[in-house]
Each structure stands twice: as structure tokens, then as C-alpha cells.
Amino acid sequence: MTDSYPSLGISLTPHQQRIVESPLQSKLFVSGPMGAGKTTAAVERMRYLLAQGVPGESILMLAAQRSVQEPYLDLLYSPDRNAGGEVTSTTLGGGLARRICDLFWPVAAEAAGFAHPDQPPIFLSLETSQYYMAHIVRPLLEEGYFESVTMDRNRMYSQILDNLNKAAIVGFPHTEIASRLDAAYFGDPAQRRVYADAQECALRFREYCLQNNLLDFSLKLEIFTNILWPLEMVWN
Fold first, then answer.
1. What are phi and psi of 220, to 5 degrees?
2. What are the extents of the domains in the chain?
3. How far apart are CA 205 and CA 203, in angstroms?
4. b or e along 194-219 (b: 16 or more beta carbons within 10 Å of the residue's beta carbon)?
5. Which residues 6+ apart lie within 8 Å of 160 measured at CB?
6. H-helix or E-strand spanning residue 19
7. CB within 8 A of 219, min separation 6: which ones?
């Protein structure tokens, strides 16, 4: 470890030190197995940027989920850090995508086909998404949907939402959920009816969201990725 950067008693390897002290404008991609020290290097990189006078408000710390942010937040809330602007700490779906959808709602609403683009969006949590999914699916269950399924209803609602979320994350249309599940299945042919039922529920849920300005995780991420993120004004 060199003495060029004060890491508050943290012992860094030479490789971590090079990452931390890379030029401010450099672009880095760091990979390695669990326990290799990636997070330690990244946290110290943030500390280094702030110590070098990089404005906190110009730094975006984007994580896959909130729990991953904790080491960074420990630094940002520490009395040892330099005074200055606040670093933006967020996740992709729950944070960045929501902020961008909210900020550019007039553009998003029209392009996505919402029924009331002149009215504000309503962002759904996991719990409220399940509530509206139940509102859609319950009448269909009485018509014979998912007859062969024995799982708890709440778990069923959650599974349909999970299919929508995975489609948005991977980047394929939500209209292909059933065909992709079916293509990967080699068991009882009766199971294919379940995939068709899940697809119909997903389609009805999405249409309900568009009619009522509701944005669950999947719709929020689709709008962010496919409609807003490619726009130059969003980048600016």
C-alpha cells in the first residue's frame, strides 16, 4: 500500500490502490469473486473523489438493491467525510427509473399509451401491485383459470408480477411471457394452460395500469429503458 491516499486505516492492496487513485475522468469496470475487495475499493474510490473536491451532487451511486448501498452510506453519513453536496444514492427500478418517469411524465405518458396523460402517475409498491393484481385475477379464478394450481393465491399474484418484472429486466416484451415459459418446459402438457392463464392475467393487469395511470415495477422500468433513456433531453 502506498502513502499517497489516506484511507483512514483501511489496508488496501496495490491493485485496490490503483483503482482508488485512478484519474478522476477515467472509466473503470471492476470484477472479481466474492470477497475480493471490490466494494472496499469502490467505497474508497468515492471517498477519494470527495477528498479531491469532486462535488457530491455530481456523483451518482447506483446499486442493484438497497442492502448493497450500506457500505457507501456508512461513508456518506460519517463525520469523517469532507463537507459538501450530497451524493445521490439510489437503485435502478425503485429510484432512478421512478425519478426519471416522474420528471418526464408528459413524454412518458403519451408514448406509453396511458389513458390520462394529463393526470399524474401513481407509483405502486410491491404490496399495492399485488392488491391490484388480485383485483384482476380473482374474477378469472371463478371462471376456471389456474384450475390445476394449488399454490396460495397471494403467491400466485406475486408470481405473475415476478414474470412481468423479469421480462422488463431481461428486456423482452411482456406479451412473450407464456411463449418463453412454454418453450423451456418439457413436462406435463397440461402445464401449458397455466402459462396461458398467467399471460392473460399479465396482459389484463398491464391494460388496467395504462387505463388508471398506475406504474408497477415492470411498467416503470420498461418506460425508463425503452422510451425515456434513449432521449437526448433525458441524458442532458
1. -60, -45
2. 14-86, 99-235
3. 5
4. bbebbbbbbbebbeebbeebbbbbbb
5. 133, 137, 198, 201, 202, 205
6. helix 14-20
7. 112, 168, 206, 209, 210
Q: How do residues 193-211 score in pLDDT, each as one tens digit?
A: 899 999 999 999 999 999 9
Q: What share of the chain is helix, strand, coil (3-state, %, to 5)?
A: 60, 5, 35
Nearest to 219 by CA among 235, 231, 232, 203: 203
Q: Are 61 and 90 in contact (CB under 8 A)?
A: yes
Identify the DSSP state of 5. S
Grid cell 412481468 is found at: 164
Residues found in the chain: 236
13-24 pLDDT tens trace = 999 999 999 999
Backbone φ and ψ for 60, nearest 5 degrees, come out as -110, 125
Each residue's pLDDT tens digit, 98-144: 999 999 999 999 999 999 999 999 999 999 999 999 999 999 999 99
**Contact by Cβ (8 Å): 19, 40:** no
- Residue found under cell 487513485: 21
All three cell numbers of 224, joined, read 425508463
